[in-house]
Specification:
five-stranded mixed beta sheet, 37% helix, alpha/beta, 10 strands, Purple Acid Phosphatase, chain A, domain 2
């Protein structure tokens, strides 16, 4: 059996990441995979980068998310292609995080791959942010079935690990399985806890369980409110409630 811990969408929330990692380490997984979006929105981008780089140095799979492009290169259209005009609140948050990180952490963000793969026996596992071949096209739970089939068919991997939607989800399509651990630091599903998932692969059997770790969301919410960027009052409410507030 191979056990893989999945985390995604930390968004500058070091308190959530540290809380989730404490639970992850208690499970002693064979591999940790972190699926992108490390620094935008939250108050502690540099601390998150440091922690994820420590994981990477110990063998974790680490990939780039779309908002990492926004922060590293300030390419707003590339990071948010669904907007005709990227909202000002997104721009100022990306610029703030860019300045907070400095050159070397930004270079690390730029170097991250958009996808990685692993094998567990005969089972290929894909780690990506949005969907196979895309950092920005997510796998939303309400997506049309034809669109789901088109996106999962872009890879030979049987297990596809994604983030991006900020909503935890496990879908067994028969020929493929999609696992979204949800957002560790910026949840949208009504539970403000730090989300992660444990994927267990044993021969032809694969099972994913969604986990939630509580942490003090009010401390992070207050820190965001005190930062005072445009949109921080909504970001603070999102962290506190686990629902996207704008």
């Amino acid at each position: 059996m191979i056990r893989i811990a999945l985390l995604s969408d930390i968004h500058g929330n070091i308190a959530a990441l540290d809380a989730a990692l404490a639970d992850v380490h208690r499970e002693s997984p064979d591999l940790i995979a972190v699926l992108g979006d490390y620094v935008l929105n939250g108050p502690r981008p540099a601390e998150v980068v440091d922690r994820v780089r420590e994981l990477e140095a110990r063998g974790a799979v680490v990939i780039q998310g779309n908002t990492d492009v926004a922060v590293a290169d300030l390419d707003m259209a590339g990071a948010f292609p669904w907007f005709d005009e990227v909202p000002h609140v997104n721009v100022v948050a990306a610029e703030w995080a860019h300045e907070a990180l400095g050159d070397e952490p930004l270079d690390w963000l730029r170097r991250l791959p958009s996808e990685r793969r692993a094998t567990a026996g005969d089972t290929m596992v894909l780690f990506c942010h949005g969907s196979p071949g895309s950092q920005t096209q997510g796998m939303a739970a309400e997506m049309d079935a034809a669109a789901v089939v088109e996106r999962v068919a872009r890879t030979d991997a049987r297990i596809i690990c994604v983030g991006h939607t900020h909503i935890a989800d496990v879908r067994d399509l028969g020929w493929k399985q999609v696992v979204n651990p949800g957002s560790c630091g910026y949840a949208f599903d009504g539970d403000p806890g730090a989300a992660w998932a444990l994927l267990e692969i044993d021969g032809d059997r694969a099972e994913a369980t969604l986990r939630r770790t509580t942490y003090d969301t009010r401390v992070v919410s207050d820190e965001l409110s005190e930062r005072g960027l445009a949109g921080d009052v909504y970001r603070a409410a999102t962290v506190r409630t686990g629902r996207f507030v704008r």
